[in-house]
């Protein structure tokens, strides 16, 4: 007797088709990426997230800090060539050592990172890295990767629909963990490295010597020595030593773009 083949939901088929046809290329690196989200939608989400951040965080009124970020940010923004972005630069008063750039060019730097950046060149390394995430559309790519992972799990769940529920749940749980460690986390580390790579070029084009990025990450590594971190393969970011080594390897390329006084 022939077994009945389960029907695959139309939404799953549509998503699978989208995976096949939706590919884009990252500027400068040329890496091909799967992208299931239109850039216009990604930028709308960026604007919404930025507005929410402005209502929940304390925006610095320090004229010197704001002037520095605007000065450095404008030069980095010009180096990207994305004149269609609605660039905005804000300093948030917060102790966390962090910064971000949302799709569409909304850049935030926390005051906690400024003692580490020290000067314009150090700040350019941070802004260049964060801006690179937006230019390379890493946010949209992450959403797409999550869709793909969910698609795989949904397909497995469908295939196991007639099996023992405990066995099926065990398989799904194991696959979920495997998708995170073997697929999502490596992509996250790849994106962080790619943002470092692109950021070096953008800061060089903007007139900041890219060696300042290497110096910044040496200081960051020194500052975080006492912190307990997960092994690199379980982390969203490359290890500090890996990061510094990669930046050193990319410096000769980035220096070719260096335009002093841009």
Q: Which keywords apply here?
A:
single chain; 262 residues; mainly alpha; three-stranded mixed β-sheet; two-stranded antiparallel sheet; disordered N terminus
Short description:
The chain has 262 residues and is mainly α. The chain has one domain (14-255). The protein has helices at 10-21, 39-56, 63-80, 114-117, 120-135, 138-159, 165-205, 211-223, 240-255; strands spanning 23-25, 32-34, 88-92, 99-102, 106-110.
Write the layout of secondary structure elements.
Blueprint: H1 10-21, E1 23-25, E2 32-34, H2 39-56, H3 63-80, E3 88-92, E4 99-102, E5 106-110, H4 114-117, H5 120-135, H6 138-159, H7 165-205, H8 211-223, H9 240-255
Parallel strand pairs: 3-5
Antiparallel strand pairs: 1-2, 4-5
Can you describe this structure?
- This protein has 262 residues and is mostly helical.
- The chain has one domain.
- The protein is 61% helix and 8% strand.
- It contains nine helices and five strands; from the N terminus they run H-E-E-H-H-E-E-E-H-H-H-H-H-H.
- It has helices spanning 10-21, 39-56, 63-80, 114-117, 120-135, 138-159, 165-205, 211-223, 240-255, and strands spanning 23-25, 32-34, 88-92, 99-102, 106-110.
- The strands form two sheets. It has a three-stranded mixed sheet. A two-stranded antiparallel ribbon has the order 1-2.
């Amino acid at each position: 007797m022939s077994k009945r083949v389960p029907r695959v939901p139309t939404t799953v088929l549509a998503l699978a088709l989208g995976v096949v046809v939706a590919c884009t290329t990252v500027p400068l690196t040329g890496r091909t990426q799967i992208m299931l989200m239109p850039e216009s939608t990604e930028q709308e989400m960026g604007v919404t997230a930025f507005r929410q951040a402005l209502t929940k965080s304390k925006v610095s009124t320090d004229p010197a800090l704001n002037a520095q970020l605007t000065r450095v940010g404008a030069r980095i923004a010009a180096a990207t060539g994305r004149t269609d972005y609605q660039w905005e630069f804000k300093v948030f008063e917060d102790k966390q050592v962090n910064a971000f750039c949302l799709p569409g060019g909304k850049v935030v730097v926390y005051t906690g990172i400024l003692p580490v950046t020290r000067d314009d060149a150090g700040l350019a390394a941070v802004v260049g890295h964060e801006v690179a995430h937006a230019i390379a559309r890493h946010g949209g790519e992450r959403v797409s990767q999550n869709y793909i992972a969910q698609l795989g799990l949904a397909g497995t769940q469908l295939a196991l629909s007639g099996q023992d529920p405990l066995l099926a749940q065990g398989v799904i749980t194991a696959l979920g963990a495997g998708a995170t460690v073997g697929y999502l986390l490596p992509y996250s580390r790849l994106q962080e490295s790619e943002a470092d790579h692109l950021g070096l070029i953008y800061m060089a084009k903007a007139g900041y010597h890219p060696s300042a990025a290497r110096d910044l990450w040496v200081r960051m590594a020194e500052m975080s020595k006492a912190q307990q971190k997960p092994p690199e393969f379980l982390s969203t970011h490359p290890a500090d030593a890996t990061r510094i080594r990669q930046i050193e390897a990319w410096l000769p390329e980035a220096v070719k773009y260096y335009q002093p006084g841009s």
